[in-house]
From TrEMBL:
Name of protein: NodB homology domain-containing protein
Coiled coil location: none
Domain NodB homology as annotated: residue spans: 41-273
Signal peptide from the UniProt entry: 1-21
Source organism superkingdom: Bacteria
UniProt keywords, alphabetically: Signal
GO molecular function, one term: hydrolase activity, acting on carbon-nitrogen (but not peptide) bonds
Amino acid sequence: MNAIKKLTTVTLLTLSVSSCAATQQKNVVTSDFTYPNGARYAVSLTFDDARNSQVDVGIPILDKHNVKGTFYVNPKFVDERLDGWKKAAKNGHELGNHTSSHLCTGNFAWLRKDDLGLEQVDLAWLRQDIEATTTYMKEKLDVEPRSFAYPCGNTFVGRGKEVKSYVPLIAELFKTGRTWLDETGNNPTYTDFAQLAGNRMDGMSFAEIKGLLDMLKENNKWIILAGHEVGEKGLYTTDKAALDALIVYLKDPKNGYWLATVDEIATYIEKHR
Ligand SMILES: [Zn+2]
């Protein structure tokens, strides 16, 4: 979540995409993995936190094109658009778990809960926090989540020699876990479902997102794009016009992509690799 690092990453990616596109294209390695309908690459559109603009702006764009997204939710935001989230689940969008507390490293002072950061909690605390969201989702949304996204992409509890990974906990509780701000896509024959790579789509134009896909797609990659708000382009807002253009591009069979939810693609890969 550190904004300067992220901005730099986006800028670097954009620069390298524009300067190296031709080279990248030449170096694309064709491997054997194929997706449904002969697609060579896969993309999932994912959104974190259950922000209101996802219900108000994002889901109507997906519905217009009849495509499904994966939404990793926090109960406190779901409550603000409960009927909208129920309808989204009924319409086939995937809802995943994003914890209750949204606890990240305590370096994000504004994300601390009761003044705690991940450095100060243990696995038992986190398990309870995650299971509370699953219980909420079952009761309020009639959904049993199979997918999880790590808040801020952080995968640890504790400090120094006492640090423990919570990836094994996610592997126990869910089929998949997605991180954030990775610089790679997921190789279908190799990737670990408990730590799926996620890439930013917030703050980018359609041309920039397409450049990112071109750069990451070699070896039949599954690229998981992640956003927060949906509206006018911003650091934590996926641009609504870019999203619309991206879906049109991904749905065109000549571009070689399969666009589906995280759980659909993970299930397909598990069966076929
Ligand atoms: Zn989040």
